[in-house]
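#struct-help
A.M.: can someone run this one for me? Single chain, 459 residues.
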Amino acid sequence: MAGYLLKNCAAVVIDDGKRLTTRRNVDVLTDGPAIQAIGDNLGERELPAKTITRDASGWFVYPGLVNTHHHFFQTFVRNRADLDWTKLSVIEWLDRIYPVFSRLNEDCFYHSSVTAMAELIKHGCTTAFDHQYCFPRHAGKRLVDRQFEAAELLGMRFHAGRGGNTLPKSEGSTIPDAMLETTDEFIADCARLIDNYHDNRPFSMRQVVVAPCQPVNSYRETFVESAALARDRGVRMHTHVGEGESTVIAARHGMRTVDYCAELGFAGPDAFYAHCWELNHDELSRMATDGTGVSHCPEPVYLVGAEVTDIPAMEAFGLRIGLGCDGAASNDNSNLLHCVHSAYMLQCLTASGRRHPVPAPVDFLGYATTGGAALLGRADIGKVAPGMAADLFAIDTRRMDYVGTRHDPLSLIARVGIGMPTDMTMINGRIVWENGEFIGLDEKRLFAEAEAALATVTF
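D.P.: on it. Structure tokens below:
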């Protein structure tokens, strides 16, 4: 496997062990899957065999982004006026959207995954976690297997969240019968995927997360057995929490969702929740004490219209925070770069009257890199540093878009926003996207195949 010398980078965003900081006019050297060195005039030393040199003049080099919550299959229901949140109540929307999801077939899950991951890669994401909770009976059980296939095609570092729903609509869930599984079915397939795919070695490209969809749509034992399996196999746990369901959980179980999950054992340093916008300070404090992390998804706030997640309070309590795109049902793009910008701007919009100050712009970049890596339990990604995985992306800032901004690479993404794809994305030491092309792949063919799969579904 070739290594790369990125020569004379205008700026490299590194982690010095305490915070993100910047080094100017330095080289970055990779060797196989790892970063070997960052420094001056690295080309003057003896380089590993097959090292390829890239002129990186003008480039800002960033650690690859880590997406910690998504629903790839929803990519096939983007930009649909008939499914617009603003024209429907939540119950009406759920009643309309889930039957659509239940019609997807196996090829749809594969091609929607290719579509979502391709967009993520174009915008600097190098590790993606997907929460795949939709298992229509006619589509079979190999849907996550097809996602791993899609990730291998694109060269994406992929963490698969095997989700599922077990509570029938007749008992209070929003899930049609065609998408239900038993707890035994769900746990058995989680175990199968862990056995077949989970790799906990350094620079692993494949991992599995046990991820029942949400407490409001599953039986109690589903979560109890999920936690038992995850801890027995040493994998992470994930679910949706604090997105409007706490009053329902309280009515059913006599406690809100955070306490309910903790009682079931579905909390701790090996667990992370998506959203958490409705949680009070006592609940945030409990999560911080337990070590449970949160994947903040800022862009659904625009469509859902719910309150803005209190990231300053989460910071003050010491919660572990990552960022996620979320699925296309509530965010029509798979652009984590854009989410960094959205997350910061939303906090600035709602800062007045809040108890805690908005974190610095660079902190939002940290949520999308080191923060996301920590949620996924990875010590080998999320930073540009010697010995870390060579996951990074580069922006050539010699454009009119960046005049007046180049003095502060750390704040650029959060404050200014990046309005175009990266100039280069590298994953595990391999350049997978460069100069507007996926290396070794025909994007027009991928597009045509995805469109053909989408056409098989009747909406």
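A.M.: thanks! DSSP finds 14 helices and 17 strands in the chain.
D.P.: also worth noting: The mean pLDDT is 95.
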